[in-house]
Amino acid sequence: MSEFNDKLKQFLHDPIDKCLDIPDHERRAKRYAELFGVGDVSEASSSDQIASCMERSFLPKEVEYGLPKDAFYQPFTEIRHPFSDGKLDVPEFDRSELDKIFSAFEELFSSLDLPSEDDKKFLYLWRNLVEYSFEKFKGTEFGKYVPILPADTRIPDHSIWEHLKVSSAINSKWMPHENKKQLLQNNSLFVMSIGPVQSFISQARKTQDFFMGSFVLSYLTFKAIEKIVKDYGPTNIVYPDMHGQPLMDNYLKGMNITVKHSFDRFVQQPTIPNRFVAILPFTDGAKIVQLAKSLEEIVKAEWINMVCAVLNKFGLLSEIKDEVIEKQNKGFPEVYWAAIPLCKGELDLVPNDLSDYFEEDEIKRWNELKTFLDKCGDYTVNVGLLYQLAYSALEKSMGARKNLRDFEQVEEYGRKCHLCGEKEGVISAGKGNLRVGKYISATETLCTMCFTKRALDVYLNDVFGNAFKNFSFPSTAEIACSDFKKRALVKGKKELGEYLETLEEVLGNRFDQARVSFLPNIQKTLGDVVHDVENVEGDLFLEERLTKKEFKNEFGISVSDEQLNELKKKLRNLTKKVGNPSPYYAVIKLDGDNMGKWLSGAQLPEIRKVYNSQVWEKLPEDFKKEIQKFSSRKVLTPAIHASVSTALRNYSLELVRHIVEVEHLGKLVYAGGDDVLAFVNLQDLIYVMKKLRAAFSGYVRFEGDNIVVDWNNDTGFVAKDGRYLLTMGPNASASCGVVIAHCKAPLKMVLDKVNEMEKKAKEIDSGKDAFAVSLIKHSGQMREVVCKWRFNSGNGVIDTGDMILEISRYFKGWNGLTLANTFPYKLYVAIEKLKNRDGVYSLDSEILKSELRRVINRSLESIDKVTESRDGVVDKLSDDFLYLFHSAGIHENIDRFMNLLELARFISKVVS
Q1: Angle between helices 45-56 and 638-650 (to 10 degrees)
Q2: Prior bond to 281 cis, omega within 30?
Q3: Same domain (yes/no): 209, 346
């Protein structure tokens, strides 16, 4: 394919080691291209010209300022974080080291077994070049910088990888024009979203419904992306970053393309968000509409294929009329799109062409910038300069389109689906070969859409092979009981075996229906211990669930009183040995703050942070003043978009899964960029919350295989396995909604509540960067806490999560002392007495501290040999409570403060 031969030249026009020796980089680029069997890479200079204008417009023309040529030449001394003030200082490499590095690259590139076809070669190099390069230099000082090597040493805020991706996405060429060459480009910005998200995902009675709803949207979005990848290449997808995405790696595997360090083993994890942004290599309106319609047809056809395949697996396809399937699935998925061509006719877009989207002053500002850079800028100004303006117009177009939502009347039925409550229930146990068990209970009737979600793994197992074999997403009870199971495997394996043996006798041939997989953390930490032990559904370890009704509904069998009594006896033997399981679990929803502003450029740091520190100091003062007059912030570029996408990819694939599933007792539903949703055992809740928030901004470090919160790491980069990973950095924040609920609470209610709590976290007094927790007790009593993640104090930064954990330990018993369970109530009574005659609290700090000390002292009990000063504990806890009371803004809501104490007391039952 000639277009992929051009893309290869564009992708290789700069060597990945360019920053090490700028003067010689063109020679090395040609040499490396020869080793890859690619033609003259200098032919790709047109796309490089546009990409460079996008990324590095704000450099002065030396002659305009009477400066010598290469006045701003800059050695490789630092890497700037693209979204914050953070940076990495790079040690200088001497000539002998550089020669060794260049020779090592030649040796590596000569050894690669490249596909012969241009399209496969491009995919291979795009996916593997960074991996093989890092592997070649792993363990060296240079090696850790390989994934983040800058494209330009003067403006080192974006990597060479981002620059090469952008260059290879641009369709452009040089054309003769009046005795000189003219740069012509033909590109459009394109955005598409697939939904609906909340209504489709949250219609769930089981965790598997919820998970599969998320997977469907991620998978269908990828099916649309897949066509663009096939026709134009993965680098044309600006957001999300497709590099290393499990579904993308699985696609490459299907193309027989070798993938170094493949993530396809995580293909079960939804990581593709439901929207994507692409650069299309054409501007013809009819062609754009044709592509959009084609993508819509692909995702709709794939969904119908899923429905029919699942129904056929259970012998239901012949029983349900075609018109019923068509009617129930009509309108799903919803597909919205918008496009902005970067040409108007044969001419490049200019600011005035977008005047319908912006105020007159904004258009004037961009025109003035273009005029200034035409005269004084180092790069010839082209359409690349207008990326931010064009992208903002694209988002405005998309918003306008989504406001015109398609309406479809919902028909009323006598028997509605138990899951969505909207469509007619047409599937129940006994139809086809469907029986009571994993996919349906004795009391359920489902529509074709909801049943497809529930049983989608039977389809996915055909698509992805063994990845979905015997798939089951852990139930809420399984999450709640996982710490109990971990203790049982270590301290009560004999009693556990006896209980399981009795359970198998009771269930008979239905025992297979009870089998589930251990959580990943248990499989990893206990290893061989779990291999010879059955794991059954967590419900079966909660004595209140061992009833005739439950066995009938879930397994379709009748059990006797004698069988139940024997089961309960064996379970009590186990709980006597290792303690009782908790029926409570937590669901976490974390979302990056202001992501729309990040993607629009409104959150980017000061424009001076673009530059190498030394280059900024050398820039002419009037040049600096002029560009700062235009914008105090960095200007949005596709390389910035690519960097955001890379940072979110690193977060979801390299950090989130490790935190939730490897280090702790949790299970991810999805981690699609800045959105995370996970079920977590209560014992690990606070730890997971803290780590997810800290990792989003790069405030973590690895100690061996474990992620540790490190609020001092403000560079925005995280070192892992000998290399640096880009994160969103310290200027970015995230808010989190959490619900703690009993495993019998209706899942739909819990999911609706976690969405509500996430919104409350973003609406906290001083705005976002907070968490909100709702504790829903089985009795129906509800407590809510909304609090910032951290606070500044005279003693440094206070981590609210750490404070909650410390309070919890004293409720549980710590260093021989314990806070009585009645402490929150006693404190509430004491504070109520501080009201004046008008009912207003008199919250003088000294009076309040005195009351705190008094109540803490009366509530603190000795339970063992005391290993610390009682007075010291009273002082410390009273200071902590007082600080939290005032600095958290909780003094405006006494109930909020009391709820925080109640949360700490509640989780103390399980926190070790």
Answers
A1: 80
A2: no
A3: yes
- Would you list the DSSP string of 458-502? HHHHHHHGGGGTT--PPPHHHHHHHHHHHHHHHH-HHHHHHHHHH
- pTM (2 decimals)? 0.94
Local structure of 435: helix, strand or coil: coil
226 and 340 in one domain? Answer: yes
Q: Hey, what are 200's tokens?
A: 């489709």
pLDDT tens column, 762-793: 987 667 899 999 999 988 889 998 888 987 76
Six-digit token pair at 728?
A: 């969103």
Report phi then psi at 575, rounded to 5.
-70, -30
DSSP 14: S
Nearest to 522 by CA among 531, 510, 513: 531
* Same domain (yes/no): 115, 219: no
Indicate if the pLDDT at residue 890 is higher than 70: no
Helix (H, G, I), strand (E, B) or coil at 124: helix
Predicted local confidence at residue 45, as pLDDT:
85
Mapped onto helix, strand or coil, the DSSP state of residue 166 is helix
**Structural domain containing residue 845:** 800-912
Residue 649 domain-assigned? no
Domain co-membership, 110 together with 244: no
Q: Are residues 208 and 291 in the same domain?
A: yes
Identify whether 859 is part of a domain.
yes
Nearest to 384 by CA among 59, 157, 57: 57
> Following DSSP, what letter does each residue of 621-667 receive, concatenated?
HHHHHHHHHH-SBPPP-HHHHHHHHHHHHHIIIIIIHIIIIIISSEE
pLDDT for residue 414: 66
- For residue 257, what is the domain's CATH number? 3.30.70.2220
Q: Rounded to 5 degrees, what are φ and ψ at 672?
A: -105, 80
How many Cα atoms sit within 13 Å of 188 on the Cβ side? 21
Pairing relationship of beta strands 237-239 and 770-776 according to DSSP bridges: unpaired
Give the domain-ending residue among 403, 420, 435: 403
Q: Of the given ranges (203-207, 225-229, 455-459), which has the lowest mean pLDDT?
A: 203-207
Measured torsion, CA atoms of residues 599, 602, 605, 609, in degrees rounded to the nearest 10: 80
- pLDDT score for 408: 53
Q: Is residue 524 assigned to a domain?
A: yes
d(CA 8, CA 119): 9
| Torsion angle of the four alpha carbons 852, 854, 858, 864, in this order, in degrees rounded to the nearest 10 | 70
- Cβ(148)–Cβ(716) under 8 Å? no
Say if 877 falls within a structural domain.
yes
- As a whole number of angstroms, the distance between CA 242 and CA 443 comes to 42
Angle at 30 between CA 156 and CA 4, to 5 degrees: 85
Number of domains observed in the structure of the chain: 4
251 & 132 share domain: no
Within 13 Å, how many C-alpha atoms sit on residue 821's CB side?
Answer: 4
CB within 8 Å of 177: residues ≥ 6 apart: none
In a shared domain, residues 133 and 192: no
Q: At what angle do helices 246-254 and 118-137 cross, to 10 degrees?
A: 120
Count other Cβ atoms within 10 Å, centred on residue 871: 10
Asked whether residue 407 carries a pLDDT value surpassing 60, the answer given is no
Sequence-distant (≥ 6) Cβ neighbours of residue 461 within 8 angstroms: 467, 468, 469, 471
The conformation of residue 536, written as its DSSP 8-state character, comes to B
Whether residue 220 is found in the same domain as residue 276 = yes
The tens digit of pLDDT for each residue in 308-339 reads: 999 999 999 999 999 999 999 999 999 999 99
| 353 pLDDT higher than 60 | yes
C-alpha–C-alpha distance, residues 905 and 891, integer Å: 20
Q: Which residues contact 728 (CB under 8 A, 6 or more apart)?
A: 83, 592, 598, 644, 647, 648, 651, 674, 696, 697, 698, 716
Query: Considering 517, 543, 575, which residue would you say is the last residue of a domain?
Result: 575
Residue 700, SS3 per DSSP: strand
